[in-house]
Amino acid sequence: MEKKEAYRTKSKIYFSFILKTIIISFLISCSKDGEHKPFHKWIDDIYGCKGYRNIELAQFTISKNDMINNSSESDVVKVFGEADFIEGNLLNKQLLYLSNSNCEDGKLVKESDKCYIVFTFELNKLKSISELCE
């Protein structure tokens, strides 16, 4: 009888451990997804027509995650999505994201001024972020 009770106690402890591990794993995976939620809007804001792309959000994210000199082009693309334009070569490259654009019906007005958020890379390491308007 005591063996059955000891077995049940061990089973309960084992089950409790497994359950806690699963819950903790789930919570950790959910929190990682939550870190990038503002960037779903950024990524969906094609041409920057909706105003979700802005230099302040980009600079805050870069600073908060200590990305300058520590991040590659692919790291930036994971957070901010594919760039609208890419300039440069393998040694020196810039990713340009349109921001605060003049749009009509979700399409960029061709003859309007354009602003870009520019991520500059040297040897595939993020070196700076700036805003360029023309």
Rg (C-alpha, Å): 23 Å
The structure class reads alpha+beta
Order of helices and strands, N to C? Answer: HHHHEEEEEE
- Helical amount: 40-55%
Strand percent estimate: 15-25%
Largest sheet, strands/sense/barrel: 4 strands, antiparallel
Shape: elongated
Which stretches of 5+ consecutive residues score pLDDT under 50?
25-36
Describe the 3D structure:
It is built from 4 helices and 6 strands. 43% of the residues lie in helices and 25% in strands. The chain is of the alpha+beta class and 134 residues long. A hairpin with a 2-residue loop joins strand 5 and strand 6 (125-133). The chain has helices spanning 2-34, 38-44, 55-64, 73-80; strands at residues 85-88, 92-99, 103-104, 107-108, 115-122, 125-133. The protein has a 4-stranded antiparallel beta sheet, with helices on one face. It has a two-stranded antiparallel sheet with strand order 3-4.
